[in-house]
């Protein structure tokens, strides 16, 4: 990080719209951090509700990640997606993914990748983001608000309670997820994939998995399997053929 | 636990204060809550090491870190939960988590 990058936080607006009083989240919550950073991208408009705690109108939250095998859980995505498709007005759907609806953790079952669903549904702007990269996240929310049609942003938010790690590592773990290419940051404009943050040297997935106690039942064989899957997906993303 | 600011300032609400027809003149909201439950460890800035970059400010999930007039940052202990992200993310090691006196 150069000197300019280090001092950039001071260029952001200091006004807080997402009020600290309003959330009873646990300490070190990734969702709270993501919401707060996303709010910094939004400028005040007529729709703001001054007296409410979250000064912007919002709709039902969407449950986190979804699993392939269970039929009922897979259906959770549909109401929110259908809702924004039906609207004549363009809207922004943000999913804060804390990987909580995983059910039984098994290395052979990967979570349903909702950004791919959103691309297939034909939304105008689809992106993934992580609060460990705040300027990238803020840029993406801004771009999503500017685009004409509906848009979707998938935000990885580490959960200290669910993932079982110390609360001070929230930002660190998000950074590891991106550097291990297990959660690549990209944006899709009209079907074209583009990586926004591309690390030249990708870390081994093992480092990310070893940081969290929820994966303590994973064996070396499982980790190699995950590494192979992640490498295959990331090579596809780099070439833009998804 | 969370305390209501309005309750602290005024006298407790009794049945005589209820308006005719149980009309509520104020909407319910979470704004007056102080969600910071007294943290075990609080962040303390070392002003000699601090370069005023603002990384602690952007990574605080509770929006508890505020910029003071001289450009340095300090935590608002009403809202700080003592998670320690600022201590971990500070590049210069200027923030230490210490026990509250």
Key traits:
heterodimer; A: 242 residues; alpha/beta; 5-stranded mixed β-sheet; two-stranded antiparallel sheet; 9 helices; 13% strand; B: 101 residues; alpha+beta; two-stranded antiparallel ribbon; 3 helices; 6 strands; 20% strand; disordered N terminus
Provide a short characterization of the protein structure.
By secondary structure, chain A is α/β, with parallel strands linked by helices. Chain A contains 9 helices and 7 strands. Chain A has one domain (18-56, 72-238).
* SSE string of chain B: EHEEHEEHE
Low-confidence stretches of chain B: 1-9
| Element string of chain A (H = helix, E = strand) | HHEHHEEHEHEHEEHH
Q: Radius of gyration of chain A, rounded?
A: 18 Å
Enumerate how many helices of chain A there are, as a single number: 9
Helix content of chain B: 10-25%
Protein described:
- The complex is a heterodimer of chains A (242) and B (101).
- Chain A is of the alpha/beta class and 242 residues long.
- Chain A has one domain (18-56, 72-238).
- Chain A has nine helices and seven strands, in the order ααβααββαβαβαββαα.
- Chain A has helices spanning 3-7, 30-41, 71-74, 77-86, 114-120, 134-146, 170-179, 205-210, 220-239; strands at residues 66-67, 92-97, 111-112, 125-129, 151-156, 185-189, 192-197.
- The longest helix of chain A is centred in the last third of the chain and has 20 residues, at 220-239.
- Chain B has 101 residues and is of the alpha+beta class.
- Chain B is 14% helix and 20% strand.
- Chain B has three helices and six strands; from the N terminus they run βαββαββαβ.
- In chain B, the strands form three sheets. A two-stranded antiparallel ribbon of chain B has the order 1-2. A two-stranded antiparallel sheet of chain B has the order 3-6.
- Chain B is elongated, with a radius of gyration of 19 Å.
- Classes of the chains: A alpha/beta (242), B alpha+beta (101).
- At the A-B interface, α2 and α7 of A face β2, α2 and α3 of B.
């Amino acid at each position: 990080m150069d000197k300019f990058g280090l001092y950039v936080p001071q260029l952001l607006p200091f006004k807080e719209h997402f009020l600290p009083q309003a959330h009873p989240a646990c300490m070190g919550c990734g969702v709270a951090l993501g919401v707060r950073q996303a709010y910094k991208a939004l400028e005040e408009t007529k729709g703001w509700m001054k007296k409410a705690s979250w000064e912007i109108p919002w709709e039902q939250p969407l449950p986190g990640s979804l699993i392939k095998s269970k039929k009922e859980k897979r259906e959770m995505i549909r109401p929110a997606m259908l809702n924004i498709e039906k609207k004549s007005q363009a809207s922004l759907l943000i999913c804060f993914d804390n990987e909580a609806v995983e059910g039984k953790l098994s290395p052979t079952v990967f979570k349903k990748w909702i950004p791919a669903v959103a691309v297939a549904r034909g939304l105008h702007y689809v992106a993934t983001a992580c609060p460990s990269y705040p300027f990238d996240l803020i840029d993406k929310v801004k771009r999503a608000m500017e685009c004409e049609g509906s848009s979707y942003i998938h935000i990885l938010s580490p959960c200290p309670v669910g993932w079982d790690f110390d609360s001070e590592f929230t930002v660190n773990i998000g950074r590891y997820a991106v550097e291990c290419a297990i959660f690549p940051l990209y944006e899709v404009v009209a079907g074209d994939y583009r990586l926004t943050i591309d690390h030249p040297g990708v870390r081994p997935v093992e480092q990310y998995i070893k940081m969290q106690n929820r994966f303590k039942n994973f064996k070396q064989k499982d980790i190699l399997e995950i590494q192979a899957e992640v490498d295959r997906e990331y090579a596809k993303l780099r070439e833009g053929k998804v | 636990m969370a305390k209501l600011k309005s309750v602290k300032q005024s006298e407790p609400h009794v049945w005589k204060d209820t308006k005719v027809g149980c009309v509520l003149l104020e909407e319910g909201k979470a704004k007056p809550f102080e969600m910071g439950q007294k943290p075990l460890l609080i962040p303390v800035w070392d002003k000699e090491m601090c370069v005023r970059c603002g990384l602690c400010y952007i990574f605080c999930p509770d929006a508890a870190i505020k910029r003071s007039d001289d450009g340095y940052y300090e935590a608002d202990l009403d809202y700080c939960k003592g998670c320690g992200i600022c201590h971990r993310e500070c590049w210069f090691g200027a923030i230490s988590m210490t026990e509250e006196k």
